[in-house]
Design a protein that fits this description.
The protein is mainly alpha-helical. The protein is built from eight helices and three strands. It is 50% helix and 10% strand. The radius of gyration is 16 Å and the shape is globular.
Length: 202
């Protein structure tokens, strides 16, 4: 089956007040995300992966020993990552639901400490990649970081929140100030209701 570029769940300019401009969204969603869809579809056509789900392709092609990975993994994983990324943000949902706040406080000591840990993970990811809040296999909440397109599915984890720290995600609006971008992401872009829903379904 061929995958499609999903529509944004809001207008291209809906996050501008929160610090992610319409121009960034047009480049990031319409060009970068779409390229992963186009390239991924071309690479899986006629292969054993052609009728598999995104999740099955990601876990089936991930190679823990290879930083470079392969074309199918890189494109399909980034397709999945971006599908999640747009949903994890929004013009609403700024207030963190109580159940999520309690779990984060239990795991990290405070919401503020979680944000520090998350920011440090993203800022400390050398080169392109992602930082994540995940539910680990033992049910605990953890902050992680991954290189390139690698994501929590590769480790049997559930992604609650992910921040894209590839330069195309922030360079138009924040230039080379990745830590500022991540801090702004947490304070002004995350839809915490979506994160709480993911936790409830984990």
């Amino acid at each position: 089956m061929a995958f499609n570029l999903p529509d944004l769940p809001y207008a291209h300019d809906a996050l501008a007040a929160g610090g992610m401009s319409k121009e960034t969204m047009e480049f990031h969603h319409d060009l970068h995300h779409n390229a992963y869809v186009t390239n991924g579809n071309a690479l899986i056509a006629g292969t054993e992966w052609a009728d598999k789900s995104l999740e099955d392709i990601i876990t089936g092609t991930y190679n823990a020993a290879s930083v470079a990975q392969n074309g199918i993994f890189n494109n399909i994983s980034q397709l999945w990552n971006h599908n999640q990324f747009w949903e994890m943000m929004g013009p609403t949902g700024r207030d963190m639901p109580g159940a999520l706040e309690s779990r984060i406080t239990d795991a990290f000591g405070s919401v503020e400490q979680f944000k520090k840990d998350f920011g440090a993970a993203g800022a400390g990811q050398f080169g392109s990649g992602w930082c994540w809040l995940v539910v680990d296999g033992d049910g605990t909440l953890k902050v992680t970081k991954t290189e390139n397109g690698v994501n929590p599915l590769c480790f049997g984890q559930t992604a609650l929140l992910g921040c894209d720290v590839w330069e195309h995600s922030y360079y138009i609006d924040f230039r080379n100030k990745r830590p500022v971008y991540i801090s702004n992401f947490l304070d002004n872009l995350v839809n915490w209701e979506n994160v709480a829903e993911r936790l409830a379904n984990a």
